[in-house]
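I'll show one example:
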Amino acid sequence: MLLWTKCYKPDPRIALGKYSPMEKEIQRLGGVHTIAARRFLAHKQMEEKKMLTKLLSPDHEQVTEHSKQNEPLRPTFVPLKKTWTTKVAVSAQELKIPPRERTNICKHIERMQLAQVLRNGQSLPHV
């Protein structure tokens, strides 16, 4: 254990072991992608936002308002013109499909046509 971590034990953001307390809580809730973990993270984010708004000084608020009022003009978006075009030459050999793949594609097309006929309630074609 590092020496400086002994001084900062009460700070929950510093991980003393393998994971920080927040990471441990997320794992306990089932991982990042679970609804409970998302709610937990949203709650923590709201708490942090509230804390930051309490800590912001009036001077900081005045500066942000002043910067919003005196925003520099931004240039308008101009679409770029097409600068170049190219033609790709592909040999006919590269476009050929192997016979085995061609039969798989044909069978797939036949199955899709049969499914479409069955879905529409039409009479079955003579196979």
